[in-house]
Amino acid sequence: MAASMLAPSRASTSSTTSSSFVPPSRQNTITSNSDGATTRSIRASKRFSVSALYLSMSHDKDIEIEDDLARVQKILRDLKSKISSQSKKNFVLEKDVRYLDSRIALLIQNRMALEEQNEVASHLDDATEVQEGAFPNDQKTQQYGNLFFLLQSEPRHIAALCRLVSMSEIDALLQTVMFTIYGNQYESREEHLLLTMFQSVLSAQFDNTPEYSSLLRANTPVSRMMTTYTRRGPGQSYLKTVLSEQINSLIEHKELNLEINPLKVYESMIKQVEEDVGELPADMPRGISAEEAAANPTVKEIIAPRVQILMNIAESFLETIISHLSETPYGIRWICKQIRSLTKRKYPDAKDQVICTLIGGFFFLRFVNPAIVTPRSYMLVDGTPSENPRRTLTLIAKMLQNLANKPSYAKEPYMAELAPFVNKNKARMNQFLNDLCEVSDFYESLEMDNYVALSKKDLELSITLNEVYATHGLLEKHCASLVKIGQDVSRLNMLLQELGPAPPQVPRKDNRTLTLPLFSRWETAIDDLTAALDITQEDVYFMEAKSVFVQLLRTLPAQSPAVRRPLDLRRVGDTAAKMKDLAMFRKGMRGIELLNQLRDLGIVSESDGYEILRDEVEQELHHLGNLKEKVIEEIGKLEEVFKTIRDHNSYLVGQLDTYKSYLHNVRSMAEGKGRKQQKQNVLGPYKFTHQQLEKEGVIQKSNVPENRRANIFFNITSPMAGTFVISLHYKGRSRGLLELDLKLDDLLEMQQNNQDELDLEYVQFNVPKVLALLNKRFARKKW
Amino acid sequence: MGRISALLDGGVGKSCLTAQFVQNVWVESYDPTIEDSYTKVINVDGRTCMLEILDTAGTEQFTAMREIYMRTGHGFLLVYSITSLSTFQELTELRSQILRIKETQNVPIVIVGNKSDLQEDRAVTHNRAIQLSQSWGRVPFYETSARNRLNVDEVFMDLCRQIMRKEIVEGTKVTKASSSTMDGQGGGRKKKKFCTIL
Q1: pLDDT tens-digit series, residues B124-139
Q2: Which of B15, B17, B28, B34 to mutate to probe the A interface, most A CBs <10 Å?
Q3: Angle of helix A297-323 relative to helix A262-277, nearest 10 degrees?
Q4: Domain ranges in chain A with CATH number 1.10.506.10
Q5: Burial class of residue A706, CB neighbours in 10 A (0-12, 13-18, 19+)
Q6: Nearest CA in chain A to B84
Q7: Interface ipTM > 0.85
Q8: A361: alpha, beta or left? (left if phi > 0; alpha if psi -120 to 50)
Q9: How many Cβ atoms sit within 10 Å of the Cβ of residue A318?
């Protein structure tokens, strides 16, 4: 679809080019030439019409423009669709891992009943990809296609459903909504529909909250929705760009203690003295009050510099966040904007501070700060931060939150030490929160996109059988309530009736991924866009002409006299029309024809060199020029994101594999009792060099002097499933320096307890990495 | 010393409850908690007890922090708001998460229905909470009003008492078996109670 590449609104949903949502100022150029009265409604959104029409003309595949822009755009599109589908896979995997995380501890303690072991095993079975498949009959395909078209194009149904479902139903629903129905995270129509749904859910929440102090505080399906939304590609990529560097450098300083709670400082002080001296001097009593600790001169001395450092760190976080304003994902800014406008509408006398507090309650409390406090769950860092950095990060998040809200030091008096930070930056923060809201709306482009979607004949959804059935089930269950809250569900009801009762979930192994063609049960596809959009034939000619000349100019060789400036559109057309290439010839002819038609209609004039059209063509070319750089830049960033998501995926898969092999052991041991022991086959020894393990991160700390490391190697043997022997050798010596027996159970337990270090005297192994290594090397087939 | 954690949903009033208990103040501001900690020395049945109270984030995006609280806390206040059914419904999952992490059925817990001053907005009946308490083996249940300072001290005292009782029972067990005293903290020293408010 060559022409769709020209469409600016299509390309602008992404996180990094949110600025391009500011409409390019090239509208209204035709207004003076046509009857303002009949076409007024479309005038306002002319800028969008152009892009949509480009798209609609894409059926005309005469010339596939294969220039650099087109090539990079294709790369970008592929990348985006890969990210979308990978995030969905991760979302599903995460659910499984979360489930198993919570069960594996019990298993380790051997306290899990056999039935439950089987249940756990069933969760592991489908870590494999879901197979492709189709509905048993065409009628069902069509009926579900109708249903999901309705759900997708009328977000109010899902919005209402989100408010009705229980917290236990919401996860499954959100998975389907965010990763499937609106799963194409970088496609403007789906993104905009999803945001429309948000708006309706948010506004209902505002209507039902009596006072603003409790607004957006509780955990509801709405807040779950926001979390899930921030976890999609653009949000992830933003957090990664903005936060990961600073967080990582903080985490490296494991010893940096920035505790400023006097009591804690005092406690660690007396602990230190006790360790050093053996007993406490008389002037250091135990169990003093917070006030006494705060008044202690030594404590004061320790805290003062820490307060300074904390303020510096927090300020640099703030600096980075503010400087990345334009890279903040459009959808997230748009939600901020909705919060602001809903607050103003619902509480007209709300002060600016209150509004900022509410915006901060979303942006910082639900998006940025959770990532700062628990960076691992947001894929920003590899390991769990150790105690000191963890506390520092918590303090930083508290400071940022204080800045967004009105801090009350009544809660923790020692936080008042940090007041200079708040006083200094309060105004900046409020300004930033307001700036976040400065994004344009998308309603007009959405309307256009929807029309275009209707005219497209290939709308489809990749969805699993169980997602279809689960959504069907939820609709069935809540349909009556939908009516109660004032929804017009006549169409929905009709579709549900045709479908009959919702089928139950199929076993995981029978689940299939389907490609569901979407189409409306009521409207037929629109062939005549002019009628649907209420625009005149002149507009269509003008836009087609623009499109044709832009394409020609992008295809003509750079040295051709026709592309010389100032542009002569007729010469461009003539040149193309003389070319041997049939497609170019036809485009050229069409261009000339359109020029004549527009001239005859009095819209452009030969005497000024078709100035209006020429200017717009130039602007478009200019815009496309910039677009290429932006696209390349965006590819770079998204590749980063994709890599993160993929790494996270291998982490999740590895985790599942570990559980799998562990479970296998437990079960085979249980079965093995009484029966003849299976033939034990010893695996290994496999040899690993120090260098190799260091590179893979298995060795996280080494006490071996640099110059000796080349002589160190490790042998790992698995005498039987679930048991490993690691021995450390020095080149030339026959006997190992050290031997360690390891049980998979122990490693898992350590991991479960967040104990990352496995001490081998000479080196320290990283537990998760060891697990991954053992898994990879000693995978025993047939679980 | 004992560590108490107050856990649960955003906006149910954990922080208000804690501030009333520790500082005798009613905090009325929109100030969501990320993690606050307090210490207070109290007298329970003639024994002095140093309480460390961890006031946790109710915002669900911070749930990744919960595990640490549950690991380190000795007792837990599970707070919901009587005006919100969903906050009440979340208690069950919280409790099972605590039991899972603690790997025991015997964890000091108090169920707290806060905002009892907002009777007209009540969404969780007294009976319903009592049923829950009974299904958990008669876990103590209170309705509180942080605003009116109603039952505030009582919930903390109750929890503290439970923690102390548990320590005594387990302490004797350990000496009787004279087996692995892995915890290693000497019996004579006054231990800190950590309390987490979830």
Answers
A1: 999 999 999 999 888 9
A2: B34
A3: 130
A4: 234-329+355-436
A5: exposed
A6: A218
A7: no
A8: alpha
A9: 19
Q: What is the CATH number of domain A234-329+355-436?
A: 1.10.506.10
CA separation for the pair B98, B104 (Å, rounded): 9
* Alpha helical stretches, state H, chain B: 14-23, 66-72, 85-89, 91-102, 126-135, 152-177
- What is each CA distance from A542 to A54, A328, A451, A484, A487, in whole angstroms? 11, 35, 20, 49, 41
Query: Domain of B13: which CATH number?
Result: 3.40.50.300
Distance separating alpha carbons of residues A472 and A487, to the nearest angstrom? 17
Is the preceding omega at residue A566 within 30 degrees of 0, hence cis?
yes
Cβ distance A218 to B87 less than 8 Å, yes or no, reads yes
According to DSSP, the residues that pair with B49 across neighbouring strands are: B42
Looking at the structure of chain B, the number of domains it has is 1
- Report the topology of domain A131-230+457-510: GTPase Activation - p120GAP; domain 1 (1.10.506)
Tokens of A756: 């990352």
Average pLDDT, chain A: 76
What pLDDT score was predicted for residue A1? Answer: 35
CA A705 to chain CA mean position, Å = 43
Using alpha carbons, select from A238, A676, A190 the residue that is nearest to residue A453: A190
| Count of CB pairs separated by less than 8 Å, A with B | 119
CB of A783 closer than 8 Å to CB of A664: yes
* B141 domain-assigned: yes
pLDDT-based confidence at residue A535 (cuts at 50, 70, 90) = low
pLDDT at position A307: 94
Instruction: Indicate if the pLDDT at residue A22 is higher than 60.
Output: no
Cα dihedral A741, A746, A750, A753 in deg (nearest 10): -160
Please answer yes or no on whether A366 and B61 come within 8 Å at the CB atom: yes
Q: How far apart are CA A727 and CA A424, in angstroms?
A: 58
Q: What is the pLDDT of residue A320?
A: 95
Contact yes or no for B59 and A410 at CB 8 A = no
Q: Which residues of B touch A (CB under 8 A)?
A: 1, 9-12, 15, 18-19, 23, 25, 27-39, 41, 50, 55, 58-62, 64-65, 84, 86-87, 89-90, 97, 100-101, 103, 121, 190
pLDDT tens per residue across span A126-161:
545 566 677 767 788 888 888 988 888 777 888 888
- List the one residue out of A408, A313, A413, A395 whose CA is nearest residue A357: A408
Maximum alpha-carbon separation in chain A = 103
Which range marks the domain in which residue B159 is found?
3-167
Nearest neighbour of A287 by CB, restricted to B25, B50, B89: B50
pLDDT digits (tens, 9 = 90+) for A385-427: 888 999 999 999 999 998 988 776 767 888 889 999 999 999 9
The beta strands (E) that lie in A209-362 are given as: none
A412 and B15 within 8 Å at the Cβ level: the answer is no
Distant-in-sequence, close-in-space partners of A458: CB < 8 Å, separation ≥ 6: A517
Higher pLDDT, A675 or A247: A247
Q: What is the chain A residue with the closest CA to B59?
A: A219
pLDDT value at B5 more than 80:
no
Determine how many CB atoms are found less than 10 A away from the CB of residue A761. Answer: 10
Confirm if B14 and B55 have CB atoms less than 8 A apart: yes
- Check pLDDT > 50 for residue A61: no
Both tokens of A299, joined, read: 């404590």
Closest CB from B25, B39, B89 relative to A263: B39
Strand partners, A758: A765
Q: What is the total residue count of chain A?
A: 783
What is d(CA A393, CA B100) in angstroms, rounded to the nearest whole number?
Answer: 27
State whether residue A687 is helix, strand or coil. strand
